[in-house]
Design goal:
It is a single chain. The chain is α+β, with helices and mostly antiparallel strands and 329 residues long. Helix content is 29%, strand content 23%. Strands 6-5-4-3-7 form a five-stranded antiparallel β-sheet, with no helix packed on it. Strand 3 and strand 4 form a beta hairpin. The longest helix is centred in the last third of the chain and has 47 residues. The N terminus is likely disordered.
């Protein structure tokens, strides 16, 4: 975000003097600004724009706005105020159910987002939409097979095969042995590249047969598998691919940051495709879940604190009103 600092599509703040006379206090109370806080900033076009504080150092805040603009401002500032609670999010499911919540966390794969399977009203801001479009969405499939007994070296966790046929390169290039971790004779074979797409159109029986042929080239005669399972994540409507990558034309790390950035303080995003440090890994997906859980906890805690504050002020106003009435009588 720091690389995007600038005026963007809005006019920058005039000065620290507060030409419009708005004080640094909100509702008579001094505001305690913090990272992650939703704020509104008043610009010269006469509009309050909603944004989120992404960094705060020595009183200088970097604010990321929903339209992709980024501004730095010293706090407190007369033209910056805490953002009011947004209206509830409404989620409409395909089967007609309607759900309402304070926020929503999307953990769907990048392929589903790129396909447009989820409709947003209003539409996602252009910076988020462009980051989704630039993201690389790969395809890797896996074949899991379980045998009656181990025919490979149980102390070897990884091995693989190569093919002389270009169209089969990537098929079973990596094989994991789960013997030492499960105590059972299980292999997981990975298919990548063109083979990952080609094998999706094959039957499970044919995929297993080809795997047996590849293993026979290494180990000779093999036992038949007891059980097997083949993934087809490319054609799976709930996946549409597997694992993100930095595609030609993308911005690399900054795009991962944009994909992770919440929208409007209510729509949050998690998944390996939003993890700059550990993309394309289960660990990265897990870490983003922790990241967004912390964001949501902070958001809901702030909203709860605001409700308590509003209720307290309402009670105090009513008590003051009753006191005035009693004194008048």
């Amino acid at each position: 975000a720091n690389a995007m600092l600038g005026d963007g599509s809005k006019q920058a703040l005039e000065s620290e003097s507060g030409a419009r006379g708005r004080g640094e206090e909100e509702g008579g109370c001094k505001v305690d600004y913090c990272v992650g806080m939703e704020v509104e900033m008043f610009f010269d076009d006469g509009v309050w724009y909603r944004g989120r504080i992404v960094s705060l150092s020595h009183g200088v805040a970097t604010v990321f706005f929903d339209d992709g603009d980024v501004q730095q401002v010293s706090l407190p500032h007369p033209d910056v105020r805490p953002a009011p609670p947004p209206p509830p999010v409404r989620l409409q499911t395909r089967d007609g159910r309607s759900l309402r919540s304070r926020a929503v966390l999307l953990c769907v794969p990048m392929g589903v987002m790129q396909q447009g399977a989820i409709k947003f009203e209003p539409s996602l801001p252009s910076w988020k939409h462009d980051a989704i479009r630039r993201a690389g969405n790969g395809l890797i499939n896996k074949l899991t097979v379980e045998y009656r007994e181990v025919f490979w070296d149980p102390q070897v966790d990884f091995f693989g095969t190569t093919s002389s046929r270009a169209e089969d390169r990537g098929a079973f290039f990596l094989v994991w042995s789960l013997v030492r971790f499960t105590g059972r004779p299980i292999l997981i074979a990975v298919l990548s590249g063109e083979a990952a797409r080609k094998y999706e159109s094959m039957s499970d029986e044919l995929v297993v047969k080809k795997f047996q042929e590849a293993m026979s080239s290494i180990f000779g005669q093999l036992p038949q598998p007891e059980r097997s399972h083949v993934t087809r994540w490319g054609s799976n409507p709930h996946a549409r691919g597997a694992y993100s990558f930095v595609k030609v034309g993308s911005m690399g790390g900054p795009d991962y940051d944009l994909l992770a950035e919440p929208v409007g303080g209510q729509v949050f995003f998690a998944g390996e495709g939003t993890c700059r440090e550990h993309p394309a890994t289960a660990a990265g997906a897990y870490l983003t879940g922790l990241r967004e859980a912390a964001r949501l906890h902070r958001l809901l805690s702030e909203m709860q604190a605001q409700r308590r504050k509003d209720l307290k002020e309402e009670v105090e106003e009513k008590q003051a009103s009753f006191t005035d009435m009693e004194e008048g009588n």
